[in-house]
Specification:
The chain has one domain: Ribosomal Protein S5, domain 2, CATH 3.30.230. Helix content is 36%, strand content 24%. It has a 4-stranded mixed sheet, with helices on both faces. Strands 4-6 form a two-stranded antiparallel ribbon. The longest helix is centred in the middle third of the chain and has 17 residues. The chain is globular, with a radius of gyration of 13 Å.
């Protein structure tokens, strides 16, 4: 199974982000806030909204890389759009703790995940 993060798995358009924010389920976690919206699409897509409040460009890019890796390893099975808004605490946690929170939040949203082997 391919474990890449392909361009068709990204939420890119502002209109898509707005639709996910308004219609999606909002979940609060310790390290991130997640918006989840079920769609009819065959696959799952991810968007990351790392604002300047998070830190400088280096920190924002690291948060985005971590969020993409979480999504890549634990993609939801069905068509689901996910937007992650990282919190500052995300940058200081171990990847294992981030995986645990991401999986818990996905289960709470009702989006079953398929875990891919490392």
């Amino acid at each position: 199974m391919r474990q890449t993060f392909r361009p068709n798995e990204r939420v890119q358009r502002r209109a898509d982000f707005q639709r996910i924010y308004t219609r999606g389920q909002k979940l609060h976690g310790r390290f991130m806030t997640m918006f989840v919206l079920a769609t009819d699409a065959p696959g799952a897509r991810l968007g990351v909204a790392a604002t300047r409040k998070l830190g400088n460009a280096v920190e924002r890019n690291r948060a985005k890389r971590l969020a993409r890796e979480l999504f890549r390893r634990h993609k939801p099975n069905r068509g689901t759009d996910v937007v992650i808004v990282p919190k500052r605490e995300l940058l200081t946690q171990s990847f294992t703790r981030l995986e645990t929170e991401f999986g818990t939040m996905l289960r709470r949203s009702g989006g079953r995940q398929r875990s891919t082997p490392p």
